[in-house]
Amino acid sequence: MPILVAPHIPPGRLSSSPQPSLPVEDGLLLRPWCPTDAPAVLSAFSDPAIQRWHMRRADSEEEAASWIEQWTSAWYTETDIHWAIVRPGTEGRDEVLGRIALRGLIPQVGYAECAYWILPAARGRGVAPLAVGAVRRWAFDEETGFERLELVHSLVNEASCRVAAKAGFPLEGIRRRGNLHADGWHDMHVHARVRGDGQPG
Q1: Which is nearest to 23 in space by CA: 105, 98, 86?
Q2: For residue 76, what is the enclosing H or E element?
Q3: Ordered per-residue pLDDT tens for the chain, 201 residues
Q4: Cα separation, 15 vs 111, whole angstroms
Q5: How close are the terminal C-alpha atoms of the chain, in Å?
Q6: Burial letters for 79-105: b for 16+ Cβ neighbours within 10 Å, e otherwise?
Q7: CA distances from 153 to 46, 53, 158 (A)
Q8: Nearest residue to 116 via CA among 151, 146, 154, 141
């Protein structure tokens, strides 16, 4: 069946080059995940708050390493983009603070959903809004070409609502029964930015 509209992001625009690292304010960096990050991923998915909102746990470093392999390959299939949020260290010993991703890419219309988690020791320092802002700027760059980014969270996840506001993602509405968590269905806040929106306040 012929498609009458050309892809907004042509196939291969992303995957033809290595996944970029993105500088973040406050000396932070978003970089592709490495196999040596597996202990940090295991630690993250042992945290009750991350388990609550991401509905997964990792039971071993081997399992965490397999997730990292999947996150790495997703760049080349142009389905998701995953970065480690790190404070760079010497001799490659970065401090992993969290993860940020663009999930569910639809290159045809230039759409993705922004998702993240922050390790407990790094919370309360503004890491998540800074990371979201860096990804937003990269995604809306002309050479990248995204048109719409969403940030979606449970109505009872007040911390993520604050992150969305600080990162300049206005609330558009509520997706009723938008996700199934361990404690049942949750209505979801839908925040979004589109190309051409003014500078975040």
Answers
A1: 86
A2: helix 61-77
A3: 777 888 999 999 999 999 999 999 989 999 999 999 999 999 999 999 998 888 888 889 999 999 999 999 999 999 999 999 999 987 668 999 999 999 999 999 999 999 999 999 999 999 999 999 999 999 999 999 999 999 999 999 999 999 999 999 999 999 999 999 989 999 999 999 999 887 775
A4: 16
A5: 44
A6: bbbbbbbbeeeeeeebebbbbbbbeeb
A7: 20, 8, 9
A8: 151
Q: What's at 84, amino acid-wise?
A: A
Report in angstroms the alpha-carbon separations of 51 from 118, 133, 140: 12, 24, 30
Cβ count near 77 (within 10 Å) = 11
Which secondary structure element, helix H or strand E, spans residue 148, and what is its range?
strand 148-154
| Contact (Cβ atoms closer than 8 angstroms) between residue 54 and residue 116 | no
Residue 122 in contact with residue 113, Cβ under 8 Å?
no
Q: Which position has the token pair 């990248």? A: 144
| Count of Cβ atoms closer than 10 Å to residue 145 Cβ | 17
Interatomic CA distance for residues 100 and 83, integer angstroms: 5
